[in-house]
Write a structure and sequence with these properties.
- The chain is of the alpha/beta class.
- It has two domains: 7-247, Peroxisomal Thiolase, Chain A, domain 1 (3-Layer(aba) Sandwich), CATH 3.40.47.10; 260-409, Peroxisomal Thiolase, Chain A, domain 1 (3-Layer(aba) Sandwich), CATH 3.40.47.10.
- It contains 13 helices and 15 strands.
- The protein has helices at 21-30, 64-68, 72-88, 111-123, 132-136, 140-149, 164-177, 195-203, 242-247, 276-288, 307-321, 334-337, 344-358; strands spanning 6-14, 36-37, 50-51, 100-105, 155-156, 183-190, 233-241, 254-263, 296-300, 329-331, 360-361, 377-378, 383-384, 391-398, 402-409.
- The strands form three sheets. It has an eleven-stranded mixed β-sheet with strand order 5-4-6-7-1-8-15-14-9-10-12, sandwiched between helices. Strands 2-3 form a two-stranded antiparallel ribbon. Strands 11-13 form a two-stranded antiparallel sheet.
- Strand 14 (391-398) and strand 15 form a beta hairpin.
- The protein is globular, with a radius of gyration of 20 Å.
- The two termini are 21 Å apart.
């Protein structure tokens, strides 16, 4: 039986370097950082005072009444989903909404709502918002996107730490391939730049402490990296059954080829240093996509700028691709946008799709000297990809040992 083909027909994003896909892509190609020194009063006592906040406040885009009913992470999701939906052209098509689904992930969910309402509770229970629960629940972003689009095929919310939105994209493709939907709006959102996450990640020694030089704080693969930079935003892709897209004359950015989902079974925080789980995820994605290792010309790496994680991923890529890794150009967008947690995979899947579509790989910035444990062909300036049929991998790994690798290819 032939496999149902799934293609990408719409893209939407709001990130630390741009309020939409076009501005984000331009910034990535230019190597611009979205890192900033935070100046809010609550930052004063924190050891880590830097992050990568969204370039455009979602409240500047969403109507005021609606924005007040949404947690920050759901606001980001709405902004990105609206752009992706408009970009796909589906707003102008008569649709059977029972064939439309949503899969929007998050790593933490409505954290800011939780924190503000807990503070309100300490003053008086009557000060807690009646909307607190629908705003703080992890499925709030997915639910609100589903409500806005009128999706009836199913609305889902994978939560698997920093692998969440890649898992959502995989889930969306599965829904189409299983015949449960023709279109699924998929991605992830996160809005958790606040005192608690910065303090907690800081206590774990997971964050960079380069408060005096935020734009150079995120340094994937660099020998002097000292942790990641917390970011925020959302990325949303419209996945569509190939025949459905062709029938309506849709533009197609790329084809979703396959996914690999594995677990390390090693540690709640630290990656398996052998890279075994990540290796299996990449190999699964290749098998599902009927791809050979030599078909992969680009790797959008998870590469967060943590000492252990960057090396483990490099080892895994080498094991998964073998000598073909010599011809696959790797890049690390987190050097510019920081780590968007549950939104990271979706935003970086968009970057992967655009790299194939434009045959151009954005650079990794802040890489002065590559760690001896890293053996990859890393783009430190824009790199062109060749002609013909090509494919790329996007990796996302999360606390708990979650590994998700996605494979995309040109159409």
């Amino acid at each position: 039986m032939s496999k149902t083909r799934v293609v990408v027909t719409g893209l939407g994003a709001t990130t630390p370097v741009g309020g939409d896909v076009a501005s984000t892509w331009d910034a990535l190609l230019a190597g611009r950082s979205g890192a900033k020194l935070l100046t809010a009063d609550w930052v004063e006592e924190l050891p880590v005072k830097i992050a990568a906040p969204a370039a455009v406040e979602p409240t500047e885009v969403i109507e005021r009444v609606k924005a007040r009913r949404l947690d920050r992470n759901a606001q980001f999701a709405i902004v990105a989903a609206r752009e992706a939906w408009a970009d796909s052209g589906l707003a102008d098509v008569e649709l059977d909404k029972t064939r439309l689904g949503v899969a929007i992930a998050t790593g933490i969910g409505g954290l800011l709502t939780t924190l503000t309402n807990y503070d309100a509770l300490k003053t008086s229970p009557r000060r807690v918002s009646p909307l607190a629960i629908p705003m703080l629940m992890p499925n709030s972003a997915a639910a609100n996107v589903g409500l806005e689009l009128g999706a009836l095929a199913g609305v889902q919310t994978p939560v698997s730490a920093c692998a969440s939105s890649n898992e959502a994209i995989s889930l969306a493709a599965d829904q189409i391939r299983l015949g449960r939907a023709d279109i699924v709006v998929a991605g992830g959102a996160e809005g958790s730049i606040a005192g608690l996450p910065l303090a907690a990640f800081g206590q774990m020694m997971a964050l960079s402490k380069r408060n005096d030089d935020p734009e150079r704080a995120s340094r994937p693969w660099d020998v002097d990296r000292d942790g990641f930079l917390l970011g925020e935003g959302a990325g949303v892709l419209v996945l569509e059954k190939y025949e459905h897209a062709i029938a309506r004359g849709a533009k197609i950015y790329a084809e979703f080829a396959g996914a690999g989902i594995t677990a390390d079974g090693h540690d709640i925080v630290q990656p398996d240093p052998t890279g075994s789980g990540a290796e299996r995820a990449m190999k699964q994605a290749l098998r599902e996509g009927d791809l050979a290792t030599g078909d992969i010309v680009h790797i959008n790496a998870h590469a967060t700028s943590t000492p252990a994680g960057d090396v483990a991923e490099s080892v895994a890529i080498r094991k998964a691709l073998g000598s073909a890794a010599d011809h696959a150009v790797a890049t690390a967008p987190k050097s510019m946008i920081g780590h968007l947690l549950g939104a990271a995979g979706a935003v970086e899947s968009i970057a992967t799709v655009l790299a194939l579509h434009h045959r151009l790989v954005p650079p990794t910035i802040n890489l002065d000297k590559v760690d001896d444990g890293v053996d990859l062909d890393i783009a430190t300036e824009q790199r062109k990809l060749g002609d013909g049929d090509i494919a790329a991998l996007n990796n996302s790994f999360g606390f708990g040992g979650h590994n998700v690798a996605l494979a995309f290819k040109t159409v």
